[in-house]
User: Fold this.
Amino acid sequence: MKRMLLLAAVAGASFAAAALAQAPAAKPDLAKAQTIVKDVCSACHGMDGNSASPVNPSIAGQPAEYITLQLTHFQSGMRANPVMQGMAATLTPEDMKALGLYFSQQKPKGLAARDAALVTAGQKLYRGGDVPTGIPACAACHMPNGAGLAKRYPRLAGQYADYTYAQLKAFKAGERGADKDGKDVNGRIMGMVAAKMTDAQMKAVAEYTSALR
Assistant:
């Protein structure tokens, strides 16, 4: 009898676990995300994700999973930035998912390139890379239109050239993508790519992607 009860209990637990695993995940709370954006994020990134300053990135239209991943990196300290680490400190995993979805649904305003010569050089490198120095085509990961891809590769289209250039320099200097635990795989890859780029190439790619739509 005891054996039958034990088996019944085990079966019941297994059924409950299976049911829980199959249960649909809760939908991101966009209303709460909008409140967080209004109270916290908008000061730097704008209510619609379009930053008013090249010091802060525009994140409108950025892949939702990428935003969520970066927030988790800031929160854990994997990505070092005193301001963003403070902002992300109190966010729950659900908040980060909701914020990712919120900003992904915003429309990027787009920018105009400032230097035609840089755009020409940047276009060549972005689309075809530089074989002699082993620099891969940026489009291979960030897409030909610069839209990015899921959580792995960020949107570059319409981003401030100054911001993109600053991030490339940070990758090259080991200030990004060089976490001590080696968990930021994509950051480490980007660091290896940036290490091969000259300052002129970084400026050219940043200028080209700023004008992508």
Notes: The chain has two domains: 30-104, 116-210. Confidence is low (pLDDT under 50) at residues 1-11, 15-20. The domain at 116-210 is CATH 1.10.760.10 (Cytochrome Bc1 Complex; Chain D, domain 2). The chain has ten helices and no strands.
